[in-house]
Specification:
The complex is a heterotetramer, with two copies of chain A and two copies of chain B. By secondary structure, chain A is α/β, with parallel strands linked by helices. Chain A contains twelve helices and 14 strands. Chain A has two domains: 185 residues, Thiamin diphosphate (ThDP)-binding fold, Pyr/PP domains (Rossmann fold, 3-Layer(aba) Sandwich); 126 residues, Rossmann fold, CATH 3.40.50.920. In chain A, the strands form three sheets. Chain A has a seven-stranded mixed beta sheet with strand order 3-2-4-5-7-6-12, with helices on both faces. Chain A has a five-stranded mixed beta sheet with strand order 9-11-10-13-14, sandwiched between helices. By secondary structure, chain B is α/β, with parallel strands linked by helices. Chain B has two domains: 336 residues, Thiamin diphosphate (ThDP)-binding fold, Pyr/PP domains (Rossmann fold, 3-Layer(aba) Sandwich); 33 residues. Helices cover 46% and strands 8% of the residues of chain B. In chain B, β2, α7 and β3 form a beta-alpha-beta unit. Chain B is globular. In chain B, 60% of the residues are buried. The chains are: A alpha/beta, B alpha/beta. Chains B and D meet through α7 of B and α7 of D. Bound molecules: thiamine diphosphate (2 copies) and magnesium ion (2 copies). One magnesium ion (MG) binds next to β4 of chain D.
């Protein structure tokens, strides 16, 4: 078995980047403050020192420029790994992502493909208010041509990032910043990947299926423990790949349990949970024993002082689990 | 240009300045800031520094979520506000509490925002520094840098069309000047002949990124030509120069003469924010060099040259500032957070049914839990 | 009763703008080529001549600048009515829309609000390929603080636009360009509004509820006629307000029919149809007689040569209606 | 500057040009384009015009979805391609079919794209003009204007790092220069020292919008200074000047000397596109003035001055062009559209399960209908 090391998510991501940069001479890392400083969350720490300032470098403060030039670098034979400092600041680059990166392979009939990863910390729970808390995954999932991936812990972060880096499509890689330093787990020292488009069955259960991803996995785990205390046996799925996603895994779980609850921090309307509910109710209709449910951020901008109310909590999840199972 | 050459630039004649190294200035330029105003400004700079020091400590004690100092840049932030009319809107970036202080925004109003408590005019919705004081003509600050620039341009157009004779001033950092919004704002302002001033606080850094990585341009003011608007580069630690440049630009804009870009060279003496450690990316020495050039040092020297400021006066001003800040902290810290129900207000002017349902379901959940 | 005039959608929109510009001296119209030229689709034709170049004017070619300066104009006391030449080109302005316009009122605790309308032609059916065919409504519906409105015909266009113009919130007003000139209907000559947040019950029926909006309303109508020929009695709802929307109207219809099909042209995943299905299955669960269904654009970029296959067709709608009703 | 002053600008010494009004040039500058190349370019210009005329007709007959002419701008589009190395990528805006013709992209490949048929390398996915010819170093065109500029910058960085010695050239219109992407691309190119040339075809209009509404700047080339890169403004109807400017810039960039911005003044002689009617927004007279200055008129005059071009030669060149275009049309129009199944390819390198399900369900629906 591979050597295991204790790592938090930052270290796991840094380690994945290090392994990849060592292997692929054409890979480069760029973004605001990612160079000597190592990024505001230190994910790229030490990499400029190791791989030089031509391969790991700070950019001017302009997200459209970062993604736009990265596209050109990919066309020119480099493999850009881009950091957007916070997911909230990705929107100036939105056109370059949804109109350019997402459509490039399709629009030229496959003559070019863009092998690039756009990393960004996302999500709430750090008292960041409107602009340091958003969860934009649904915008990207609604955009054909992009892959959207969200790890929930250090192990997932390393394996998924390495898989994303090996993937020939543009990948939007969202990192739950609340989890960055909050847990340490055993992570294999060497190269490994967690395949894209595959969800992880985290816990088996009979009574209901609970799907979450990113920082909400922690909430899911805690809620399920509470539910266990009340005698409910809940199956938990970590979605990991948000799009394209593992519908099969979700379906076969719901076919067993007949009940589904999806958690997301993003505003509820047109979010990822809506997508799962819509698709699952269609395909598992006859097996359903209760309305499929979701717990999401409210349809308000992300608040500052009241963020604990805004974010799905284990108590709310328990409440809905209870209602779903007792339906 | 990197920070070294930025220092050099402060010395070159191309850069416009008024104050001499010894604190003197041409006699006829004194009137730019009469003695009484100079004293008021000096006191505000002291207050600014006390706030920076005390609130940074508060942040370290975990009593404040986040803090950003503006120490060193007050000649720009206070000077610009001073040079404007009271009803000229100022679109802040975030590092310009000095402008609020000149505008006489109550200290408690500022602190309530920093805390995000029940009295915060923003209702606790935003992180510290995302001020909005409509009564004082301060529109809402937002994190994404540069987004305020087109707003100021649009406001400056509205002022022209509605003949309010207001001039909108927008601050941004030299980092923000790399964003697309900078380009569109400046270009639109020329085409719309907006009554707008864009003021770049070029403090040498965007977090850890030095200006040399931000652009290869020798000066950001030189971008003005590419938009057909006025452009000037000034010494941003020279209060009189700031006042003159902003006043000139405001007068021209008010008279229909079009927008202006002012690049004010200054230095971020502190960390980027309470989450930052600048020793990781810049030499101590560089910081020390700037201490002689910083806004307080230069304004103080000038006030002394005028003979209107003594060490005793300074001591008592520091004491006043400490007292005011202490009072502000103790009064504001006591206040409760905003009520939960307020979470759902102001998304729209009237709450839509779909959102009311979310609110009701959540409040019911809270009630049920209590039982 | 008000005088009626035959108008196509372009004329109806132009007429609404004319009425509003006459009434509100602070209203201004801006966008690329909207001045003397009257816009590439001629929606603003004649308005510069009438209201002058200070109130109706061409802008430089920069959508972020258009929306960004419009926000400032609104803060400064004007009421901007903005045209984005095609919805596909709104993405450079995405940050200004989702991070600024959408959050402005909320973030300052209601000290300022932005009364502004952002109009844009959207949708397929004109052989516009990737970049003259997109339907971005879900991006905006997923963004709290924005209102999203889509008329389906000339009558709806005028009444909804006048309501949007009277609304104190920022409204994203999407115009189905395929319908621009394809139908003429009787439209009241004078001022009237169609309230926001209200759907229209277009046809009553017992067997299933069909929800559509914009250009898809035409497809819905045709499909329902075909279905009628097969003996199915389908209820049709025109959503009109996409967000915030009229859940009550949809629910009470589905509670009656037990069946729902939603049509959208946008890519399927995380679209508006997903939202409706998710919410309706939760709230009408016990009344459902068949899986709720959606027909949407495929999860690919919008194509050029094969757009007739991409867009939901009446035949596909009929096929799914049949399957739903015979479930 | 509006179109009137644009015309003036063509006459001013500030604007760099080589060809004189009578078609002559300084003897030592002839070698910029040797006689044989000049003839080849002239023939391409004729071909370009025949395509424009014939395909516009085809469009009016409903046999082509959309068309855009580039008549008048060929000195820039052909000249720039000529001045580059064959493997230098050209990032097209959309009005540069001349570059493709110089690169010897087969006529049928161009036409297949315009039609979007089964042989189109883009598989019928995009509107006419959204070319991509990887073999000829032509990356994919996209509608949103200006988005190609950062791509060219990034490619130019890759070329430097990978030491391919390629130079990336990006075209854009003067309208596109107002987009944020212009700003970030040029600024990044300076900082990254990218091997990139930005070439603005300033043809006076963006659809109906004249340059005077696009910017208040006197010249777009002046923006270069604000990014610390080289900038030059040239007569874009002067083939030799275009070749020289692009060649100089390419040599400098290849040698590590950094990026350049070239503003080439030209004129959009036709409508914006087949959907446009320019008589609604510009005077006939203005168009007529430009006929004397257009690329064909000036290159022809120069070729005659060199004594290498006669009316007879021109006649036979026109005939050749007509023939080639006729053949292209008839061969390409015959081809069927792409197969339905192809709709789902190339979204990702491998089709994901969720998309395969959509494909299978749709193909099943089609099969069921047929039965
Ligand atoms: C669009 C966007 N990208 C990134 C950030 C993160 N960020 C916050 S401040 C900052 C540096 C800003 O530097 P500058 O504009 O020079 O202003 P200064 O902090 O020096 O006053 C960055 C990168 C942001 N706020 N907005
Ligand atoms: C981002 C974006 N906004 C709007 C358009 C619509 N549009 C297509 S071409 C054009 C004018 C472009 O003018 P210019 O850049 O000068 O190029 P030219 O057509 O003159 O060659 C416009 C507004 C677009 N394609 N992309
Ligand atoms: Mg700075
Ligand atoms: Mg043009």
């Amino acid at each position: 078995m591979a050597d295991l090391v204790q790592m938090n998510m930052i270290q796991a991501l840094n380690n994945a980047l290090d392994i990849y940069m060592r292997r692929e001479a054409t890979a480069i890392i760029m973004g605001e403050d990612v160079g000597g400083f190592g990024g505001v969350f230190r994910v790229t720490e030490g990499l400029q020192q190791k791989y030089g300032a031509e391969r790991v470098f700070d950019t001017p403060l302009a997200e459209a420029g970062i993604v736009g030039t990265a596209i050109g670098m990919a066309l020119g034979g480099l493999q850009p790994i881009v950091e957007i400092q916070f997911a909230d600041f990705v929107f100036p680059a939105f056109d370059q992502i949804v109109n350019e990166a997402a459509k490039y392979r399709y629009r030229c009939g496959g003559q070019y493909g863009l092998k690039m990863v756009i990393r960004m910390p996302y999500g709430g729970g750090i008292r960041g208010g409107h602009y340091h808390s958003q969860s934009p995954e649904a915008y990207f999932a609604h955009t054909p041509g992009l892959r959207v991936v969200i790890p929930s812990g250090p192990y997932e972060a390393k394996g998924l990032l390495l898989a994303a880096l090996d993937c020939p499509d543009p990948v939007v890689f969202l990192e739950p910043k609340k989890v960055y330093r909050s847990v340490k787990t055993h992570v294999p020292k060497d190269y490994y990947t967690i395949p894209l488009e595959k969800a992880a069955l985290v816990r088996e259960g009979r009574d209901a299926t609970l799907v979450a991803y990113g920082a909400m996995m922690e909430v899911a785990r805690e809620a399920v423990l509470l539910a266990e205390g009340e005698g409910y046996d809940v199956e938990v799925i970590d979605l990991l790949s948000i799009w394209p996603y593992d519908l099969k895994a979700v379906l076969s779980s719901v076919e067993k349990t007949g009940r589904l609850l999806v958690i997301q921090e993003a505003p509820q309307t047109c979010g990822v949970a809506a997508e799962l509910l819509a698709e699952v109710q269609r395909r598992a209709f006859t097996r359903l024993r209760a309305p499929l449910r979701r717990i999401a951020g409210f349809d308000t901008p992300f608040p500052y002082a009241l963020e604990d109310h805004y974010l799905p909590s284990k108590e709310r999840v328990l409440d809905v689990l209870r209602k779903t199972i007792e339906f | 240009m990197g920070q070294a050459s930025c220092l050099e630039a402060l010395m070159t004649p191309k850069l416009r300045s008024i104050l001499n190294a010894d604190g003197s200035c041409a006699e006829e330029l004194r009137d730019l800031v009469p003695d009484s105003d100079l004293l008021a400004i000096l006191r505000i700079i002291l207050l600014n520094r006390v706030m920076d020091r005390r609130l940074m400590t508060l942040q370290r004690q975990g009593r404040l979520g986040f803090y950003m100092t503006s120490t060193g840049e007050e000649a720009v932030t206070v000077g610009a506000a001073y040079a404007l009319r009271e009803d000229d809107p100022i679109f802040l970036s975030y590092r310009e509490v000095g402008s609020l202080l000149w505008r006489k925004v109550p200290l408690n109003a500022i602190m309530n925002q920093l805390i995000g408590n029940a009295q915060d005019l923003n209702k606790g919705r935003q992180m510290p520094f995302h001020y909005c004081f409509r009564e004082h003509h301060i529109p809402s600050v937002s994190s994404p840098v540069g987004t305020q620039l087109p707003h100021a341009c649009g406001f400056g157009y509205a002022a022209r069309i509605l003949k309010t004779s207001q001039v909108a001033l927008a601050f941004c950092g030299e980092g923000a000047a790399s964003e697309g919004d900078f380009h569109t704002a400046l270009n639109f302002s020329g085409v719309l002949n907006a009554q707008t001033i864009f003021l770049i606080r070029n403090n040498g850094y965007a977090i850890s990124t030095p200006e040399s990585v931000q652009t290869k341009a020798c000066s950001l003011a030189s971008r003005a030509e590419g938009y057909g608007i006025a452009g000037v580069r000034i010494d941003g630690t020279d209060l009189l120069m700031v006042v003159r440049a902003v006043r000139d630009a405001a007068e021209r804009a008010r008279g229909g003469g079009g927008p202006a870009l002012i690049e004010a060279l200054t230095y971020r003496m502190g960390a980027h924010s309470s989450a930052d450690d600048p020793t990781r990316y810049r030499p101590e020495e560089e910081m020390r060099q700037w201490e002689k050039l910083d806004a307080l040092a230069r304004v103080r020297l000038h006030a002394k040259w005028r003979g209107i400021w003594t060490d005793t006066e300074e001591e008592s001003a520091w004491a006043d500032a400490e007292k005011a800040v202490s009072q502000m902290i103790s009064e504001c810290e006591r206040l409760p957070p905003p009520p939960v129900e307020s979470l759902f207000d102001d998304v729209y002017e009237r709450m839509p049914a779909v959102l009311r349902t979310q609110k009701e379901e959540y409040l019911r959940f809270l009630r049920d839990r209590k039982r």
